[in-house]
Amino acid sequence: ELEAMNDNLVRVNRELEETERIRKKDMYLAGSVQSGFLPRKAPAYRSYDIAFTYAPWSEVSGDFFDFYESGEELKGAGIFDVSGHGISSGLLTLLSKSIISRHFHSRKDQPLSVIVETINNELIEEIGQIDNFITGILLRFMDDRVEYVNCAHPDIVFRSGVSGKVGMIMEKTGGEKKSSFLGVAGVNKPFPSLSLKLGSGDCLLLYTDCLLEAANSGGGSFGETGIMEALRKAPGGSAQEILNSIIVAFTAFHGGTALKDDLTAIVIKRR
């Protein structure tokens, strides 16, 4: 009887090992497919210098981002975060990225707020019956002007190329301009947009909430204060140099504490 019990335990253990092997293989495949749909390196444009970092917490990320161009000029940028983790969130990033890109390019003559509303309606049709939702920022560039829609996402941090002053975009422009989450049925809030002008040397920092919420060994978070201070102290060089400096400050803050979320950050600097 003991021998039979031992044989059964061995069999169950082998089945569990095989299940875990298949799970890891599936996660690796899903992560490889997902990463293939995201930009692999920062694009180069005449008017804008761009750098980004992307560090998934696991094989599959809920973060995604994109750059929209026409005629080798930057026309838009987006950063988004699907709630949850795992393959389901990763699959939603692929679906959402495709929907957002299609509407951004095909509706270029419409106000950005209308484009985001159309995106949201299609996302609700596709994912409205599940528990996931999406936060994000969508930007549209028109020479030195930028249209900005924020969908319940951490605000962009701005640094002036002239004065070096740093602040949140919504505080700079005045008023609360965040809208609701994307992909949530039954929420009929508008998607207001705001517009700002970028001068030479001005830069924008977009990020997902890991940069905001990651804790150090004492339980403190980097927060908006840490992010703004890191951008303020960053050099006045390229977008990559600015981003590197921010990540160094962030890493020094949380030390060896393991991150518990996907990390994405983008610096866009007007040349």
Commentary on this structure:
The chain is α+β, with helices and mostly antiparallel strands. It has seven helices and eleven strands. Strands 2, 3, 4, 5, 8 and 9 form a six-stranded mixed beta sheet that branches. The chain has a five-stranded antiparallel beta sheet with strand order 1-11-10-6-7. 35% of the residues are buried.
Please tag this protein with its features.
single chain; alpha+beta
The assigned structural class equals: alpha+beta
Strand content: 15-25%
The averaged pLDDT comes out at 88
Helix content: 40-55%
Gyration radius over CA? 21 Å
The H-and-E topology, N to C, reads as HEEEHHEEEEHEEEHHHE
Shape type: globular
Specify the number of helices: 7
* Span between termini: 77 Å
Could you give a short account of the major beta sheet? 6 strands, mixed
Low-confidence parts: none
Tell me the total number of β-strands: 11
Which secondary structure elements does this structure contain, and how are they paired or packed?
Blueprint: H1 2-37, E1 48-55, E2 63-70, E3 73-82, H2 87-106, H3 112-127, E4 134-142, E5 145-151, E6 157-159, E7 166-168, H4 169-173, E8 178-179, E9 194-197, E10 203-207, H5 209-213, H6 223-233, H7 239-254, E11 263-270
Parallel strand pairs: 5-8
Antiparallel strand pairs: 1-11, 2-3, 3-4, 4-5, 5-9, 6-7, 6-10, 10-11
In short:
With 271 residues, this protein is α+β, with helices and mostly antiparallel strands.
